[in-house]
């Protein structure tokens, strides 16, 4: 197994590259699940299996003084269009609209400001340029622990009806890869996931801010394979 790093644009560069690779069974892609939707590449890959999942966090800037979901709903209801919702990718944009449906907000008046990647959204929350946004837990929790932003809601523990409520890393192969190859790797990952030691390593890596966390995760996976 030879890792080939293709960093950039919140995973877009690597996914675009892998999507053009031949479906020989020798190309594996580890990516954040929501990045496929963000890049409209769902039809370019065959899903093999999930590696790990995490919560998607609704966070707010310290200057917004929004500390709970009720605060966000009241602020958006009383001043439609005044809150600045930062959006890292298409998948998180849909989560914003799903949240509006669940809380009876007028989604047509929600102002979503696109940013290229979650890191820039986090920076906007820290500076106060963004009021509220969905972020991966690996970014939101460390920032909150350092008092840079507020954790408003953890989507998968409270709003179970919220679509795409969890995110995480998954293993994919180029579309139309031989089914036997996909089955081999799926069984391989099942054995991998049964190893509790490496699972604790993965959990710690995913809660480590990017890009360090992603590099740690890939290192653990590669070491276990060898």
Top keywords for this entry?
226 residues; alpha/beta; 44% helix
Low-confidence stretches: 157-165
- CATH domain fold name of the largest domain: D-Maltodextrin-Binding Protein, domain 2
**Termini gap:** 8 Å
Question: How many domain regions?
Answer: 2
- Average pLDDT: 79
| Helical fraction | 40-55%
Based on secondary structure, the structural category is: alpha/beta
Q: How many E strands?
A: 7
Describe this structure in words.
The protein has 226 residues and is an alpha/beta fold. The protein folds into 2 domains: 9-52 and 169-225, no CATH class; 55-158, Periplasmic binding protein-like II (D-Maltodextrin-Binding Protein, domain 2, 3-Layer(aba) Sandwich), CATH 3.40.190.10. The protein has 10 helices and 7 strands. Strands 1, 2, 3, 4, 5, 6 and 7 form a 7-stranded mixed β-sheet that branches. The radius of gyration is 18 Å and the shape is elongated.
TL;DR?
This protein has helices at 12-19, 33-38, 69-78, 90-102, 118-127, 137-145, 155-158, 179-193, 196-206, 212-225, and strands spanning 29-32, 45-61, 84-87, 111-114, 132-136, 149-154, 166-174.
């Amino acid at each position: 197994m030879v890792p080939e790093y293709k960093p950039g644009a919140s995973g877009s560069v690597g996914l675009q590259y892998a999507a053009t690779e031949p479906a020989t069974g020798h190309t594996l892609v580890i990516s954040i699940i929501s990045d496929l939707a963000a890049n409209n590449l769902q039809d370019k890959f065959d899903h093999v299996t999930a590696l790990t999942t995490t919560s998607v966090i609704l966070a707010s800037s310290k200057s917004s003084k929004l500390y709970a979901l009720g605060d966000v709903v009241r602020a958006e209801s009383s001043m439609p269009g005044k809150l600045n919702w930062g959006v890292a990718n298409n998948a998180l944009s849909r989560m914003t609209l799903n949240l509006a449906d669940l809380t009876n907000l007028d989604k047509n008046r929600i102002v979503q400001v696109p940013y290229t990647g979650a890191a820039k959204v986090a920076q906007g929350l820290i500076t106060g340029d963004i009021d509220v946004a969905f972020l991966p837990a690996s970014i939101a929790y460390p920032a909150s622990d350092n008092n840079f932003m507020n954790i408003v809601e953890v989507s998968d523990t409270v709003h179970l009806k919220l679509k795409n409520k969890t995110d995480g890393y998954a293993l994919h192969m180029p579309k139309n890869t031989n089914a036997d190859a996909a089955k081999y790797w799926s069984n391989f990952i099942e054995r991998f996931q049964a190893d509790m030691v490496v699972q604790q390593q993965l959990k710690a890596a995913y809660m480590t801010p990017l890009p360090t966390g992603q590099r740690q995760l890939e290192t653990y996976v590669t070491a276990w394979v060898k």
